[in-house]
């Protein structure tokens, strides 16, 4: 028996404009779930307690930002969150640790890098860019586009969580990364090239002509990177997808599921896009980067 706690408000931009929702869901929500899990755990007989696990799914953003030459985040990297989202997730991680050490709840924490893949809501970078490019809309890239992220295909993330659930040590943290560091601009350019290949008849080819550099968001972390050696050595987990194979699968999925995208990008989604992007001005500094 197990509880795997995925539930979270997870979009940094939204956390900047609506921080209260992130504190309620990520901190208060985790507290409520920990209390419920502890009550259930205590009701079990000893044999069932021995097999029970609580896995808390978190983020690499709790560690803050890295300089270009700094080593990747490891499980002992000090927490230094820089956004309301990251701070709320850091708080929830600390709650889980406390419930392990104070109450004996058999819990574990995973901190993963940026996920991508099918069914991701089009407020995140990759599905947003696919959605906009297919409609000939601008592809908004924050600042100079040189923010670096370590990209993890969602299927690899799921297999890592299963490994932690089945073989992880209670009370431990496991960092999960895909080993695919890419700048945001590189990701968008790669996406555009894939769309040019897979939709050659599109009137928007080459899709990179749609890229627009816009004002950066406040406190934007410059670089994330994950050192996954602990989960690889202890649990035998390794990412199966490269960035190239995972991104191609992702683009093909969105191209084949236009009805799903249309359904989730109506109504309130349009309001959010206008709120977050309409007031952003073109960044002159970023224009120089591409010359």
Describe this structure in words.
This protein is of the alpha/beta class. It has one domain: NAD(P)-binding Rossmann-like Domain (Rossmann fold), CATH 3.40.50. The chain has twelve helices and nine strands. A four-stranded parallel beta sheet has the order 1-2-3-7, with helices on both faces. It has a three-stranded mixed beta sheet with strand order 4-6-8. A two-stranded parallel sheet has the order 5-9. Strand 2 (53-59), helix 4 (84-103) and strand 3 (107-112) form a beta-alpha-beta unit.
Task: Spell out the key features of this protein.
Rossmann fold, alpha/beta, disordered C terminus, 291 residues, 4-stranded parallel β-sheet
- Could you estimate the helical fraction of the residues in percent? 40-55%
Overall structural domain count: 1
Poorly predicted ranges (pLDDT <50, ≥5 residues)?
A: 284-291
Class from secondary-structure proportions? alpha/beta
CATH class: Alpha Beta
Overall morphology: globular
Q: By CATH's scheme, which homologous superfamily applies? A: NAD(P)-binding Rossmann-like Domain
**Number of H/I helices:** 12
* Main beta sheet: 4 strands, parallel
- Give the N-terminus to C-terminus distance in angstroms: 56 Å
Helix-strand string: EHHHEHEEHEEHEEHEHHHHH
Biggest sheet, spatial arrangement of strands: 1-2-3-7
């Amino acid at each position: 028996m197990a509880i795997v706690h995925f539930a979270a408000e997870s979009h940094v931009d939204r956390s900047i404009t609506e921080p209260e929702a992130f504190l309620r869901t990520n901190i208060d929500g985790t507290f409520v779930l920990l209390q419920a899990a502890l009550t259930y755990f205590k009701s079990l007989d000893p044999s069932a307690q021995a097999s029970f696990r609580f896995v808390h799914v978190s983020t690499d953003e709790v560690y803050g930002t890295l300089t270009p030459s700094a080593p990747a985040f490891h499980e002992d990297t000090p927490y230094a969150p820089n956004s309301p989202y990251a701070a709320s997730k850091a708080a929830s991680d600390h709650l889980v640790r406390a419930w392990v050490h104070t109450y004996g709840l058999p819990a574990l924490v995973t901190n993963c890098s940026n996920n991508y893949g099918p069914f991701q809501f089009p407020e995140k970078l990759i599905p947003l860019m696919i959605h906009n490019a297919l409609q000939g809309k601008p592809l908004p890239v924050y600042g100079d586009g040189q923010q670096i992220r370590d990209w993890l295909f969602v299927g690899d993330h799921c297999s890592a969580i299963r490994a932690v659930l089945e073989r992880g040590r209670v009370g431990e943290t496991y960092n999960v990364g895909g080993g695919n560091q890419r700048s945001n601009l590189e990701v968008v350019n790669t996406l555009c090239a894939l769309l040019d290949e897979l939709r050659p008849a599109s009137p928007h080819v080459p899709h990179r002509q749609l890229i627009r550099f816009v004002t950066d968001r406040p406190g934007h972390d410059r670089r994330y990177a994950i050192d996954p050696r602990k989960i690889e050595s202890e649990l035998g987990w390794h990412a199966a997808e490269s960035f190239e194979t995972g991104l191609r699968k992702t683009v093909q999925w969105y191209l084949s599921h236009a009805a799903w995208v249309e359904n989730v990008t109506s109504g309130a989604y349009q309001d959010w896009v206008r709120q977050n992007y309409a007031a952003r001005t073109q960044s002159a500094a970023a224009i120089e980067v591409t010359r």
